[in-house]
Design goal:
By secondary structure, the protein is an alpha/beta fold. The protein has 22 helices and 30 strands. The strands form six sheets. The protein has an eight-stranded mixed beta sheet, with helices on both faces. Strands 24-23-20-21-22-25-29-27 form an eight-stranded antiparallel beta sheet, with helices on both faces.
Amino acid sequence: MLFESVTDAIGHTPLVRAAVDAADGVEVYFKLEFQNLYGMKDRVARNIILRARERGVLAEGAPIIESSSGTMALGVALVGASLGHHVHIVTDPRIDRITLAKLRALGCEVHIVEAMTGGGWQSARLELLHQLRADLPGAFWPEQYENPDNPAAYRALAAELRQDLGDFDVLVGSVGSGGSLCGTARALSRTMPDLKVVGVDSVGSVLFGQPDRPGRRQSGLGNSLLPGNLDRRLIHEVHWLNDREALTATRELAREQQIFAGNTSGSVYHIVRHVAAHAEPGTRIVGILPDRGDRYVDTIYDDAYWAAQELNALPRSSSPAPISARAGDVSETWSRAADIDRSDDRQRLLFIESNTTGTGMLALELTQEFALRPTLLTNDPARYRGLPDTGAEVITCDTNSLPELRRTILREFRREQIAGITTTSDFYLSPTAEIADWLGLPGSPADAVAVCRDKSRSRRRLADAGIRQPRFAVVTAGDQLEQAVTEAVARTGLPCVVKPVDDSGSNHVLLCTQVSQALAQARVVLAEERNVRGQRTAGAVLVEEYLDGPEFSVETVSRHGETHCLGIVEKHLAGPPYFVERGHVFPAPLPRATAEHLTGAALRALEAVGLTDGAAHTEIRLTAEGPVVIEINARPAGGMIPELVRLTTGLRMQEQQLRIALGREPHPVPEPDGVAAIQFLLTDRSGILARVDGVEAARAVEGVQQVTVTASPEQRVGPARNAYHRLGFVIARAQTAEEAVAACAKARTELEVVVEAPRAVQDRDT
């Protein structure tokens, strides 16, 4: 196999079948991760460093500093040096001579602390590391214990196992930083939900609720602190070995399997033998062997070391003692527990902002039905009316900064405290997808979500897939605007639609009948450098063909690429030149064949853009030539459409969204019972809203389910140009679409929007 660089050669490690005592039909395999150039942590170093360079956290040629005395140091040295970074390794006198020689040969600057501080060798190393960071501006610290790019590195290992072996039943791995076993298990569990994961720890490690015992002779597994990357929810069973048991098993691995490895590999081998001996025929077991043995020639493989350390004086068990981790049982020799001690904190479902309608707040409330704590990350809690009533934990941070979101999440939560992440706001779909991918949480690929958020990109993607859509052209701020708009209109024809590529709620969407009008609207769009949430706009305009015909939206939910249609919504627009939705009907009263054509167009569009997990709201025009895709939104429908779906099917779209975000199957879609309609409250007068009269009379109309005024008194109002200008809504339910629409209309006649002229501004001196 030919590789273009040393870093490209990382991974692709052998998977070998091993002969161990087991029932006929039991298969045991070892993934020889020590066959990486220096060890398994080569994967971690490569992923962390490459991601840091991509995000701009690590500048070209900037120094890298890491605290390590083992394979992480070697991995950072390998990848850092190969990419042109000067690497500093902070370690202590316990470093073995072979690792030290390798680091120096790779050109690293090795800093060896001279004495322990209050927290032992680890604190002494971290103190020196922070001093070096202060002395080396721009230096990057990989932080393997907390950095989610550590477990993310093992998605490649999981993919290799799947490619080489297909399905298997048990995964056995050591646990130290939480990266390798948790990262591999998380990736595998997406397609192998019944996989059993067995963790291997050391006696005296705190990872699974045991008391800390300094002086453990094992390296590469166990820990004296709880790493942020550890996710104990993924591990079904844990075994502890003391130093004698682990080191003895390491020697046995060499003698019995001809694999000269380190003590983490030996510990895994010991537990794999046990699992295999008790497995049913047909069981397939994989053990991950992380480290090679050359670092341990003076310790594990040296009889003099054993004698000096009196290792043979330690007790040794021939079978695991069952203990209760939750009850506080303490392991002295080989022990086993299935009631793993996990975090006592209630798990969170994170929301990165929300829409400001009732549907957004409802999603927060629904989270508690999953026995989870809803947590809203927002830059402005005051934006959300009714937020205190949701019971959500609120964390204020700069949600418009992806680096700040990452820092906040790392600061506030360990990985196992996060059950999922989502948003109900268009403006935060992309950062949510980025964070989900970073943390290994369920969600569509970040690129697919970004394509949907940028309508120009989705247009190009649909065009490449041959899916029918309006003719279009993209105009950017850097173009010679008048000429560019003229050429765009020539391509699309008149009338045409001019709109931003990345806004929401029909904001700045205008039907233009003249080139001059299209040019003026393009200038309006390009002049707006920040959207309603304070984010920088894309600085691009989409000019597209106007298509006549009724408009619909197809509501879907997908998991692992399997998409279910929740139904089709009939959309009523207020009329040109704006595209404000004044009402909806669900389910749309359509012949079956027409509904199937609309659904088929939506499914093909979702496949084209690559949305695999989550809700989608696909808008389609039904023309004389057939369905035409207008846009794809990678989120549940807004505009109270979820309430129409609930009233007719009992299905809560927000719950479906949350289930996908948590990695659960969506509920089956029931047949609708009746029809629901919504009519939005609009006004054709400009001024200050005084009040809305007749609400109780409107609620008394037969079939009416809700009458809600969303605008506030003293608010400036006017004719609607986008969804933000709607003042409220009426929802009705009946047996037919005609009856539901009629009930909405009757209730609307009971409502009077009282608008007053703006008051004159008083002199400031009076």
